[in-house]
Write a structure and sequence with these properties.
- The structure is a single chain.
- With 504 residues, the protein is an all-alpha fold.
- The strands form two sheets. Strands 1-4 form a two-stranded antiparallel sheet.
- The relative contact order is 0.11.
């Protein structure tokens, strides 16, 4: 196993060297292997493809970006001491903090784009040079690269709105291009993802007709939960459609996942498995429809790049104060039903379970739903983490489909899907009298179920576009204030790009 960790590390290194844009990444090229010598053999395509995955993982997790974009900006969490996080919560995104400037810089996402462009340009040539690299292997590899490039753009469009569309590597240098309209980007992203999905298997090295034999000579255990699959793409397509308020397509894409999830080894999670330190978020699993794992045995644990770095403190780990915490008032407002297995209180105000929160009656309740420490340790003296960055799972898609059907007026099926999650978490079935408006109940359940998984900010925006009852958020949406400012370095490098209007 150590050998393949080395391959991953080397591939990431070469992606930074060979796939890094000089202008965007400011990386000095000191290549030890030129591109002609790299793209000759089966091992080179594996390294190149794993490099795209590695760069995507870095783009998501560097500076804890995935959670700062998706969770902290929502305002559900507060920060006791970190002024940069307080600025994000207050939407003061141009505040003079190094972390905010890093979050405003899209260079890591364009590194993914460039690495994918290089792979798609070079990999077909390997097919001609190495007979071991089969046509089927090439087709599946190209589909993964194509999806990961489109996924990079989906993230950028949700974060910055209009961005440049670059589809060629230009030998490692991006030409300066103006921003492309986000509506055109949405259409391009959808087509790229959909076409990729048609070529991807439900699982790897399992006899799937779309991926023949052992993928890169590895058994299925090597790839479960580690690679993009057909269901991964349809799940993200459902999110893409919902983000555009195209709920008919969101219903169709999510239905595909609901009809076929067992083919990919996915299933609904028990509350205990969801929240256990050795459970769902630990390393890689087929139930993670789309994720980027950190594997202890591969020496992939880290102190940073995990939500635990932000949320955990005593008594879970040896840290006095968390970087972010959810105030008691917000916890009680969110978990407002009895017998919720994730969190509820008794008549005396004491928690009946601590799987989502520890130290509830202390000054800072500790959000502890995700707590993968080292190789499954519960020793509070360690602060090195191995949780996977999970981008979607079956419960997410079930509730997203419920959202789509509720908006489309298919109320009875939407309620069935909502109850699928509610009953698994110990709650009674939905009642309009007790639980209020159906759309609100679905979004509240998404907030409870997916807390800490980077979904909340985008859920708030979708809900507001449906309900129109939050004037402050409505103004942000109308004025494109939901997007981030573009970093100063990007504006200085590319004079064809203007700052996003809200942040001028």
């Amino acid at each position: 196993m150590k050998r393949y960790h080395l391959i991953w590390s080397v591939s990431l290194f070469f992606s930074l060297l060979l796939g890094g844009c000089k202008k965007m990444l400011d990386i000095d090229s000191s290549r030890t292997v030129n591109e002609e010598n790299m793209w000759n053999a089966l091992e080179d395509t594996r390294a190149g493809l794993m490099g795209i995955y590695g760069l995507t993982k870095a783009a998501l997790d560097d500076n804890n970006a995935y959670w700062l974009y998706g969770e902290v900006r929502s305002g559900d969490f507060d920060s006791p001491t970190r002024q940069d996080l307080k600025a994000i919560i207050k939407n003061d995104l141009k505040a003079n903090y190094e972390s905010l400037n890093a979050l405003s810089n899209w260079r890591r996402w364009f590194a993914v784009v460039n690495a994918a462009n290089i792979f798609m340009e070079r990999a077909p040539g390997v097919r001609e040079k190495d007979m071991r690299y089969t046509e089927n292997n090439l087709v599946v590899d190209m589909a993964q690269a194509r999806f990961l490039r489109a996924y990079a753009y989906f993230n950028m469009v949700r974060i910055w709105g209009d961005v440049p569309l670059i589809l060629n590597s230009h030998d490692g240098n991006f030409e300066n291009k103006p921003k492309e309209d986000r509506l055109k980007l949405y259409a391009w992203i959808e087509k790229e993802m959909y076409d990729a999905a048609q070529l991807l298997p439900y699982s790897y090295s399992t006899g799937d007709e779309q991926q023949i034999g052992n993928y890169y000579n590895e058994a299925s255990s090597r790839w479960n939960g580690a690679l993009v699959r057909k269901l991964s793409v349809y799940a993200i397509l459902a999110h893409l459609a919902a983000w555009q308020a195209n709920y008919a397509d969101a219903a169709s894409y999510s239905q595909f996942v609901m009809d076929n999830y067992s083919k990919g080894g996915a299933y609904y999670l028990s509350t205990s498995f969801l929240t256990d330190g050795n459970g769902f978020f630990f390393e890689k699993r087929s139930e993670q429809l789309f994720s980027f794992p950190y594997i202890w045995a591969h020496v992939e644990a880290s102190f940073t790049g995990h939500i635990e770095e932000l949320t955990l403190a005593a008594p879970v780990v040896n840290k006095t104060v968390p970087d972010i915490y959810m105030p008691k008032e917000m916890i009680l407002k969110t978990f407002n039903e009895k017998k919720d297995q994730r969190f509820s209180i008794d008549t005396l105000g004491n928690p009946t379970t601590e799987v989502y929160f520890r130290n509830f009656n202390g000054k800072y309740p500790i959000f502890s739903k995700i707590k993968c420490i080292m190789g499954g340790s519960s020793d509070p003296t360690f602060r090195i983490f191995t949780s996977a960055t999970v981008l979607t799972r079956l419960e997410d898609i079930t509730l997203l489909r419920a959202e789509a059907l509720a908006v489309l007026g298919e109320k009875s099926t939407a309620i069935e899907l909502l109850n699928e999650i509610r009953e698994r978490r110990g709650l009674k079935v939905y009642s309009e009298t007790t639980n209020g408006d159906l759309v609100d109940a679905i979004f509240l359940e998404r907030k409870r179920e997916l807390m800490g998984e980077g979904q909340r900010w985008y859920d708030m925006i979708r809900r507001e576009k449906i309900k129109h009852d939050n004037p402050q958020l409505a103004q942000l949406i109308a004025n494109d204030g939901i997007y981030w400012p573009i970093a100063r370095e990007i504006l200085a490098q590319n004079k064809l790009i203007e700052q996003n209007a809200y942040w001028k």
